[in-house]
Amino acid sequence: MIHAENLTKRYGERTALDSVSFDVKPGLVTGFLGPNGAGKSTTMRLIVGLDRATSGSVTVNGRRYAEHAAPLREVGVLLDAKAVHRGRSAFDHLLAMGATHGIGRKRVDEVIALTGLESVAKKRVGGFSLGMGQRLGIAAALLGDPATLILDEPVNGLDPEGVVWVRNLARHLAREGRTVFLSSHLMSEMAQTADHIIVLGRGRVIADESVETIMARAKGDAVRVRTPHAAQLTPLLAEQSASVTGTAADLLEVHGIPAARIGEIAAASGVILHELTPLDGSLEDAYMALTQDEVEYRDTAAAAPTPEVVR
Ligand SMILES: Nc1ncnc2c1ncn2[C@@H]1O[C@H](COP(=O)(O)OP(=O)(O)OP(=O)(O)O)[C@@H](O)[C@H]1O
User: Fold this and answer.
1) In this structure, which residue's CA is closest to atom 26 in ligand 1?
2) Is 265 exposed, middle or buried (0-12, 13-18, 19+ CB in 10 A)?
3) ipTM for the complex?
């Protein structure tokens, strides 16, 4: 459990975090989202005592990180996967970390196996690819078998198989009752991994909700209709105040009336339908809507109104 209360961090004139409060609960994967510069890394650094808050407080499992006698056993952290002695092997790196907490070879071997690093465990970390470095960072986070895991961009640099592996691992750790807090810019990945989402924008919490709630809000009223009689159906739907966009010769996107009504109108006129699909909103849509005023750097093309899109 992570509990942040009115957490504020200023760097000179710049307010990186502005009275941020949230709880990250056990048994769930909580995703931490926000545009570049929103304050995610700052928050994670404050949680593990790598930086000092200007005001407010944050505790992990009921205590400030520095107050834990054996922090590795309480909180596993992946913040900067490159912050490793590059001349050491992965095995020696983990063994040296474990030595500070009485963690021995057996557990080191276990986390090496768990993260798929067996074949490179004796190689110098300096020669590791980005993905191998990420796996080593995750191995280090798991070393103390902690109840809380904080992973900053854990899928960064991983190949598709590695991404799925992190997803399954995060979900498995949460099912075991652990608190799993992870940041990512990959929205589709977050939608499949997280149960709950906290979104920061310019140093403030702008959403703290279940993924289900956020997605339900994003759900639009669009319906995809595939028909060989698109030209005949379009005016019939328009008569019912629907807005219709042709996205291909036989494909329409319809807004303003439900799928069932579209089916009835088509049937009444003998129009054959090959597909009638209500379209779900995506976490990406929801995130974009939430953060549209919060982005620190935006190029003007990206800020232009979105044209009709084929989904
Ligand atoms: N050491 C520092 N000195 C001065 N300003 C800083 C420092 N660290 C962070 N900041 C500023 O604080 C704000 C929050 O930065 P932070 O790195 O926490 O954002 P983030 O959400 O992690 O971004 P990203 O997605 O790009 O990693 C930014 O405006 C950043 O420029």
Assistant:
1) 36
2) middle
3) 0.96
